[in-house]
Amino acid sequence: MTLRSSLEELEAKDVVVDFTHLKEFRDSAVAVLTRPLAERKVQVRGLAGHHERMFRYFGLSTGTIASPRAYYTPEEVLA
């Protein structure tokens, strides 16, 4: 809850949250963090694609461009 408290106290509108060195990130944390981040321009770094998608499901843009599709052909992966 420390990150959530810090975000709520922060007055800045532009926020960068870096999860690069995070060892574990539970899905439930997305719901907890979405509210304090919702009113800000947010750039998120170091999250796995799954967690970036979860933030988007909660209506929060993470500042990264989503892949136009959720799958790739074997030829594209091996190219």
Q: Could you describe the 3D structure shown?
A:
- This protein has 4 helices and 2 strands, in the order αβαβαα.
- It has 79 residues and is α+β, with helices and mostly antiparallel strands.
- The chain has one domain.
- It has a two-stranded parallel ribbon with strand order 1-2.
- α2 links the parallel β1 and β2.
- α1 packs parallel to α2.
- The protein starts with a helix and ends with a helix.
- The relative contact order is 0.18.
- It holds the Pfam family STAS_2.
- InterPro entries: MlaB-like_STAS (IPR058548).
- This is MlaB-like STAS domain-containing protein.
Determine the structural class based on helices, strands and strand pairing.
alpha+beta
Radius of gyration equals: 14 Å
Gap between N and C termini: 43 Å
User: What percent strand?
Assistant: 5-15%
Shape: elongated
Strand tally is 2
Order of helices and strands: HEHEHH
Total tally of structural domains: 1
Q: Averaging pLDDT over every residue, what do you get? A: 79
Uncertain parts: none
- Count helical runs: 4
Q: Strand order within the widest sheet?
A: 1-2
How does the major sheet shape up?
Answer: 2 strands, parallel
The helix content is 40-55%
